[in-house]
Amino acid sequence: MARRARxxxxxxxxxxxxxNLRRAMQVIVQHPGIATRAEIARTTGVTAATASSLVAQLIxxxxxxxxxxxxxxxxxxxxxxxxxxxxxxxxxxxxTPSDIRAALLxxxxxxxxxxxxxxxxxxxxxxxxxxxxQWQHDYGDRLLSIAVQVQGATDGEAVLESVAMGxxxxxxxxxISEVFSGPIRLVNDVDAAAVTExxxxxxxSGLRLFAYMGEGVGAxxxxxxxxxxxxxxxxxxxGHVRSLVGGHDMRCECGRIxxxxxxxxxxxxxxxxFTENTDHDALARHVTAADPERIDQGALALAQTxxxxxxxxxxxxxxxxxxAHVLGEPFLRRVQSVLADPPRGTLPVPVRFARQxxxxxxxxxxxxxxxxxxxxxxxxxxxxxxxx
Length: 388
Ligand SMILES: [Zn+2]
Hints:
5-stranded mixed beta sheet; Nucleotidyltransferase, domain 5; disordered N terminus; Arc Repressor Mutant, subunit A; 38% helix; 15 strands; globular; binds zinc ion
């Protein structure tokens, strides 16, 4: 960002400015403990000597460490390579109307420190800046970047509009840049969840339509694991589109009548205000006690919207994320039944719930990693036991 002064820290942050260096690093991120210099040469198409030189630079830069010897297939044993999690840090914030969770992650997506600060949208920005300043003080140039997950539409620097936060054109990057000179990025919460789903794929491919059920109803589209942003990053703001089925006498929180959220939000279907801090076991009890017809109507309204979007986008699959899985099999089957019976000229689309168990802060952490080093995590970092 041009308005932020360049300094020595920018030098270390542009370590991966050379494409071959970044590609070599990406191989190690994808296959930690398996990647070797020979593997890097083979995958990236450089000579063995170049691969050795690239790895030497990555080790010098505190980005890579050598591991044990790879399994021998005859001849000289090769040394495996790992991402160095001990030096650099990524700063992440997850902001909701009632609290902020702040964490430092290492380059393996492992949480180094984590804290939670209760507050309101009017106190949040000062709290974020104070924590960022402390991180900068403690970590200096080892803090590579900061990413902030927010509810509402964002262009990456400001929250353009958030009904939940009461924010309108609220710049978050600017106040952080007063205390931190590295790259800063805001990311929408639904987009972060869709990216997390993609990070669980070993090779993300195709177009995925991701619907998110949280405090509202949102959507995101990923293509080969990358977000479709749209103008001002507003792709997927479907919550206040008029519902195709039912709800036409129901008033929405936004003031209009008959929005999708007026039929298919947790408030509409289960009768409780869902927040990011709602306990899933308690929510499940409310789902069990709720009127099944209301849940069915919500499922149908969501499914009809997804059906129209699927006719437009022809996705490989539809994934229902956020707390959708708490609604259980009847909800899923209802959505599936609509998308399995496609309009003429379109294909049936499989529907499933999002996978659970990704590393905490994965989506917002990926945004921080992307702006710092241009890299993408994968299953090895999302399921640490699998990759090491
Ligand atoms: Zn509305």
